[in-house]
Amino acid sequence: MRWFASSSTDRVSERDALGPLLPPALLAALSGLDLVSAARRRRSSEGVHPALRHGREEEFFQHRPYVRGDDLRAVDWRASARTGHPLLKERHQPARRPLTLLLDTTLSMQFPEGRSKLRQAKVLAAALAFLALRRGDSVEILVLRGAGFERVARLRPAPRALHAISSVLEPLEASGESDVAVSLERTASSVSRHGLAVLLSDLYGDEGRLFRALSTLRRLTEVAVVHVLAAEEKELPAGGGTLRELEGGAVVSVDAGATRAHRVRVAQWRERLRGGTQASGGEFVDADSSEPAVDVLTRWLGRIP
Amino acid sequence: MIPIVAALCAAMAAITALHLRSRPRGGAAPYPSFQHLDGLAPRRRPAWPLEDPVRWALRLLSLVVVAVALVLARREIGKPLAILVEPGAAGWSAAKTLAEESPGIAVAMTFADDRPEVVGSPRSLESIERARRTLGSCSARYMGCLVRAAREIDGDALVVSRFVERPETFQGLRSLR
Q: How high is the pLDDT of residue A120?
């Protein structure tokens, strides 16, 4: 396969202290994974990328009886001779499935220290971009900053795809404050159609608006939501303490009682997010910031939804 | 003058604001969002861009007062005094002493033998030069030239004269005494 690349950003890759986004071990692990749609995973015996329409090109799909007006060139004469009825040969139209990555880079993602949620989201985004480019699909990367989602790159299969992915994603840093739901509402109608849109975020914001935005998005494309959280967010320190909000800067003191109630609330919130995303027609994927990215991807792409 | 004072105040406001700006507190651990802490936390306060706005306002006020006082004091000291002595009037030596011993800008001027005579305090060198130049190139009557020189250095005027001149001659003088 011949690879071509293009990127709207031309920045030099800056590898942070945590190493490259796509280390050789992860690339090796990705060789066993494929970015197939949820529908395709449900029908694992069929070919890749189910076509939304069938045509005359590429793979054989099925025979069907000839009806007046059909193109005679599509008649399978051998099959017709065998059955005694004129039969048409239908084939799949090969479909491209552009990948749209919606990456949350607001300040809340810069948590915890070290391997942050943003780092995890970037690694997952890089891996997904790599999988898409490997199979010949284009990749569009949109980044959520203070003002909303902005397009930072459009990648196409190319010989230096790995470099292109890294040069776009590695320099991204957390900045700004934004409600992911509000921003997604504004962006939902402009993503590439008939593809896959993956939202990588901690999903803080208005749940109702998020689900409405996901429903809008789902009408255009397949949707997956990767909910990136840190263990420290699921459970506060048992004894409580004083916390400073990364987005907004408010300071709050929590005691042991608030810590317990917070744990319950977060668990309920995650369940609501899962249920709401699935009800909106999207896939929901949990990703802990400290978890190896390949585990997240295997759990997601290896499962039958 | 007002734009300078305003700019000075703005600069001081910025400096004090920088000095008192909110900084991460040592004891507070960063946390992504309080979305699930609403109603649970016993104490919550909004994050001001300044640590203590009252302290900032008081500090700023005191600095503004000091700055305004300095500007006003400088204005008072810096206001030039022009002593115009009519040629032949008796007060020239007194005017000369007054100008030379003045702490601020003070210039005494007259004509002696048709030639301009200008003396002043040590801080008035520039004003003396300007007055001398004006008087040297002036072709009006003596008092008219002295008034013109006083206007040129933009000073309060102290006139020693018999006032035989027409009153219009003294028009345009600031704080005529």
A: 95
